[in-house]
Amino acid sequence: MHQDFDREVLSRLPLAEAVLSLWQWICDDEHLDALYDRHRGSTYEKKITFPLMVQLVRDALLEPDGSGHQSFRHAQQDGTLHAALSSAYDKLGHLPAAVSETFLSQGADRLRQLWPDTQAWADPLPASLRDMEVLVLDGKVVKRVPRRLKPTRQRKGGLLGGKGLAALHLRSGLAVALATDPDGEANDARLVPAVLPQVRARVPGPRLWLGDRQFCDLTQTEAFTAEQGDHFVVRYHSKVHFCADATPAVQPGQDRQGRVYEQAWGWLGCAGNKKRRSVRRITLHRVGEEDVILVTDLLDATVYPAVDLLALYLARWGIERVFQQITEVFHLNRLIATTPQGTLFQLSFCLLLYNLIQVVRGYVAAGQQRAVETISTELLFIDVTKQLVALHELVETGRVVDLVPGVASAAALRKKLSRLLGAVWSECWVKAKPKKRKPPAPNKGKRDHTSVFRLLQTQRQIGESPNST
Fold first, then answer.
1. CA-to-CA distance for 339 and 90, rounded, in angstroms?
2. Least confident piece of the model among 39-48, 336-345, 354-363, 455-464
3. Residues 124 and 314 sit within 8 Å (Cβ to Cβ)
4. N or C: which end of the chain has fewer CB within 10 A?
C-alpha cells in the first residue's frame, strides 16, 4: 500500500526527483568507493564509509541552516549512522585533499554528459573567441571556521580554513576543477601547476585562460601557454615590467559602453629575462575608477578585437558570483568541519552542488524556451530544498532510495530530466534585474585573519594535541 502512496508523493515533487536522479548519477556508491580507494592515502574506512560521509554532508547542506549536527543526529536516529558524532566529525576532518579535488572534477565530468541540447544556453563568448574554451581561474578561501579545535579557541580575529583555486568553464558555467592547499593564506599562483593538468585532461583545446592580476607574471603566463594552442588574458600587475614597442603605434578606441581604451604592443618582462614574452596591452580608462589594464598573447587586434577581450574580462566576474552563491545559498558560510581538510571537502561539495543546480536550471529553461540567465539559481534551489524536505518527511529514507533507482546511461537520464522538468515552472524563479553596484565602502583596516593550518602546525611543533570537540 505504501508503494502507491510513495509514488504519488514523488509524482508531485518533480524537482526533488530530478535532483535525486542526478545525485545517483554522479554519486553512486560504486563510483564513490572507487574514488576513495584511489585517493585515500593513509586514511581508512571502518563504520563510516566514504559514500555514507557524502550522504551525511549532502543532508547537512540541504538542512535549512546547513547543520551538520542535525544531519548526523538524524542519521543516528534512522539507523544510517552506527557511530558516535565525534567519529563523523573526525572522518570528515581527515579526508585527503586529493579526495576533495577528484570529488568535484569527476562529478563535473559526469554532469557535463547531461547538458541539455538546447539554445537556452546562449554562448557567453564574443564571436571572435568562440573557437576556444575559456577557463576562468580564481581562488577561494574558506572563512569563518568554528573555534572547536584547542589551538583556535582563544585566538582573536577570523579563522581561515583551506584555500582552493577553482577553474570555471565559462561556456557552460560549471566549475570543472579544483586545486587545494590546507593553508588559507597560500597564494593563488602557487596552485596553478596543480589545476592546469586537471583542466587539460578534461577540457579539449584550444583554451583561453582568464585571470586577475595575481596571475600576471612570467611563470604563470608560461604555464598557460605550455600546451600548443593555449592563450591567456590576465589583468596587468605593475610588479612585472612592460616595455612598449615603438611600432606599431598606440591605437585608441572605444568599448561597447563608449569608454576610451588604448592598446599597445610590447614585451612583458625586462630585457635579458629568458621568459619575457611579446604581448598586447589594453588599457581601459574609467572615470572615477581604477583603469583596467589587460595583457594577452593574442596579438592580432583584427582577429581578436580589444572590445571582445574587454567584454570577456567582464565575464570573469561570473566566478565571483559562483563563490558568492556557494557561500550564501549552499551554506559554505556555515562550516561543518573545523580542520583545513574538512573545510576543503565542503568547498568541493558546495561547488558540485552548484553545478548540479545549473543542470536543473538548464532543463527548466529549455522547457520554458527562455534564456537560462533569467532564472535565479538561489530561488530555484530554495524550492528544490523544500521538495526534498517534503519527500523525506513523507517517505521513509530507505524507501526513498528504492523509489529513485539509478539510470543506466546518460541518454536515458537526459530523457528523464526533460520529462520531469520540461513543464515545471514558477514565476517566483525569475531573476530580478541587476541593481547598479554601489562603490565599495572605504577600507577601515584589514581584519585580522589566521590560518587554522598554521595554528595546528605550531601546536604540533610544541608537541600538543589539537584536541577537537
1. 9
2. 455-464
3. no
4. N
pTM: 0.91
Cα–Cα nearest to 253, from 307, 309, 308 = 307
Characterize 145-180 residue by residue with b for buried, 16 or more Cβ atoms within 10 angstroms of its Cβ, and e for exposed. bbebbbbbeeeeeebbbbbbbbbbbbbbbbbbbbbb
Return d(Cα 427, Cα 430) in angstroms, integer. Answer: 6
Query: Quick one: pLDDT at residue 458?
Result: 83
Contact 54, 82 (CB under 8 A): no
Contacts 24+ apart (CB under 8 A), 89-93: 89/336, 89/337, 89/338, 89/342, 89/468, 90/468, 91/48, 91/53, 92/53, 92/56, 92/57, 92/68, 92/336, 92/337, 92/342, 92/345, 93/337, 93/338, 93/339, 93/341, 93/342, 93/468
Beta bridge partners of 253: 261
Q: What is the C-alpha separation between 421 and 383, in angstroms, rounded?
A: 13
- Three cell numbers, residue 222: 608560461
Report the relative pairing of strands 207-211 and 231-235 from DSSP bridges: parallel
pLDDT of 151-162, one tens digit each?
888 777 789 999
Contacts of 51 (CB under 8 A, 6+ apart): 27, 29, 32, 33
Question: How many whole angstroms separate alpha carbon 438 and alpha carbon 432?
Answer: 17
In the chain, the amino acid numbered 5 is F
Name the grid cell of 186.
Answer: 597560500
Over range 448-461, report the average pLDDT: 83
* C-alpha to C-alpha distance for 88 and 69, rounded to whole angstroms: 10
Judged by phi (left if over 0) then psi (alpha if -120 to 50, else beta), residue 272 lies in: left
| CA atoms in the 13 A half-sphere facing the CB of 68 | 24
pLDDT band, residue 469 (cuts 50/70/90): very low
Instruction: Please give the angle made by the CA atoms of 284, 286 and 290, to the nearest 5 degrees.
Output: 90
> Residue 3, class by beta-carbon neighbours within 10 Å (0-12 exposed, 13-18 middle, 19+ buried)?
exposed
The set of cell numbers assigned to 368 is 520554458
